[in-house]
Structure to design on (128 residues):
């Protein structure tokens, strides 16, 4: 049995895309490089599950009542140096403040520290 010949398909040569026919230009990012670096520091601090839980613990405290580091340690199955490391990362990101009373350090969430992150995420989720 003889096959019917395949129809010849002509392929047009590829042409380089012309920039003005391609698509609309990308919108300018409303976030500057400096702002992005600052947000990245805070988001990296919050990206760790232990640190995120620590922020949640500190946020649950009544206003003007910082939490002793011993109470933070008691809430986690982590060594004291590990808890101190996580709290230092949060402090350096500007999320928590620390005061020393005698031998103990007391930590509190910085009022309004999470507001810029909330605004950033709201802007990304619902751009104007």
């Amino acid at each position: 049995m003889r096959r019917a010949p395949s129809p010849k398909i002509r392929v047009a040569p590829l042409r380089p895309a012309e920039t003005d026919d391609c698509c609309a230009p990308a919108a300018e990012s409303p976030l500057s490089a400096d702002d992005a670096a600052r947000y990245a520091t805070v988001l990296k601090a919050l990206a760790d599950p232990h640190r995120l839980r620590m922020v949640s613990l500190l946020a649950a405290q009544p206003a003007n009542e910082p939490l002793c580091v011993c109470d933070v340690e008691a809430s986690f199955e982590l060594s004291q140096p590990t808890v101190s490391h996580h709290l230092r990362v949060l402090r350096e990101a500007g999320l928590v403040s620390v005061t020393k009373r005698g031998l103990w350090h007391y930590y509190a969430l910085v009022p309004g520290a999470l507001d810029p992150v909330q605004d950033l995420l709201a802007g990304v989720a619902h751009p104007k």
